[in-house]
Amino acid sequence: MSHNRCLDPMDKSMSSKLLQLKSSVNPYRPSPMVVRSNSPHRENDKRNGLDLQLPEQPDQIVVKRVRWAPICGQMSSSKTSTYITPLSNKHIRFDQETTDEDRMANELRLAVHRGGGSIDPEKNYELRAQLSPLQLPYSRVQRILRECELNERNQNTYSLPIDYARQLVAMVCKVRTDNLSALKLRLATLLRQGKARFFNRHLFNETGLIEATLPSKSSLSFVDLNQTLRTDALWCKATDGVITDLEKGTVLFKCRPQDLREVTDKLRQCSYKITHTEVGHCPNKPLVDLTDRQMTRYQEFRKQILQDEDVVKIYDNVRAGSS
């Protein structure tokens, strides 16, 4: 027998206030789980979805180097175009229609090249000798010198030891070029003709050379002047000082290459007028005496070597005026 009882008003109010469960509205969704892969073909850090194919080596960064180069040729047909040419450091044969300005520009380029590549007249004796009688506007000269400096960036200075006439004379050629191998090939023919070769007998030492003019001491005798010169050389930390031309009042000081600037400044304090400074080569053994015939042949050989535009200067161990 079933018992049925009607709900009274209080029971109805209580049943209507019951909260509905959220699960009855939204269906059940299980939370995502990380499943570990058992694949032996992948590393631990590439499993579980982290299996992107990364490159083993990163791409190399390509760096492009920009190198300054002289402007070859003329940019326009106007007269104010650049003077730089592929043969700017060579002697150019001009025709009759060439203006004097172009000829002077070529002489300045040669002076800068053979003077060591410096556009400073205080450091380049060849350039200073060309600027003295030059009749060009200052702005045009400065433009030519800036172009020369740009062209000389690719040039390097070398010292080539040469043995002449089967160890009769030792020489050191100071050259400035951008292609040393090509220069040696050009000089090889002259060396064969003079029975010479590229060989270093270690008869020279690198020395700082300072050419200067005597101050107002010309009233002294040669002996007193020579003694005063040696005293000044000792105070200025120079290793030696000799009179090269008494009539012109020119002297030559020698020092260590690293002391060249210091000795030059001290000589200026002693009222010497500096005309030229360089790092050259001096023989470390007694000089060689040549006969008249040998001297004639050697001077001809030396002249042929100096005709090359890249040969700046030649040092040797020959006594001047030997017979």
How would you characterize the overall build of this protein?
It is a single chain. By secondary structure, the chain is an alpha+beta fold. The protein folds into three domains: 69-154, no CATH class; 156-202 and 286-316, YebC, transcriptional regulation domain (Alpha-Beta Plaits, 2-Layer Sandwich); 205-283, Alpha-Beta Plaits. Helix content is 30%, strand content 18%. The protein has eight helices and eight strands, in the order H-H-H-H-E-E-H-E-E-H-E-E-H-E-H-E. It has helices spanning 9-16, 100-114, 125-131, 138-151, 180-193, 222-235, 260-269, 292-306, and strands at residues 156-164, 169-177, 197-198, 204-213, 240-245, 250-255, 273-283, 311-316. The strands form two sheets. The protein has a four-stranded antiparallel beta sheet, covered by helices on one side. Strands 5-6-4-7 form a four-stranded antiparallel beta sheet, covered by helices on one side. Helix 2 (100-114) runs antiparallel to helix 3 (125-131) and helix 2 crosses helix 4. It is extended.
